[in-house]
Amino acid sequence: MVDLAQTILRFRDDTPVSDPAVTVEAFTGQSNALAVRIEPGEDARSLLPNLERIRLVEVNFPAFGDGRGYSAARVLREAGYTGELRAVGDVLVDQIGHMRRCGFDAFQPDQPLDAGDVEIALSRWPEVYQATTDGRVPIWNLRHG
Question: Exposed/middle/buried for 50, CB within 10 Å: 0-12, 13-18, 19+?
Fold first, then answer.
């Protein structure tokens, strides 16, 4: 078993951003921040005018049942954000596959994740039904072109 607690699990090839993430309010008030943290209830759309300068967006999941961060991820990816999108907080292994489909490409869970369990979670469903931001072709499109 590999202990992934407090480790950033990344699915990117670029250099990780080392700058601390600032709040959305602080980010919109300054011009030199490269990393921002979205809390539940904050609107990711407020970041859209500045996507070209953001290198990291952390989306906080204070409780595993709070799904608002999924919407934030999808809004950002559909608007063209290509930087690192990191889920932080109460991130469970059962959520990793769904989070990847919404556009998350990095994870920083509060609790340890087993590397084998992560791999299983990411490969559980080889086919998908909905189109999302991860580029996987839905099965209905594979069947019917």
Answer: middle
> What CATH number is given to the structural domain containing 94?
3.40.50
* Domain of residue 59, residue span: 9-144
pLDDT per residue over 117-142, tens digit each? 888 887 776 665 565 666 666 666 66
pTM over 0.85: no
Q: Is 110:90 a contact under the CB 8 Å cutoff?
A: yes
User: Is residue 49, in this structure, part of any structural domain at all?
Assistant: yes
State how many domains the chain has.
1
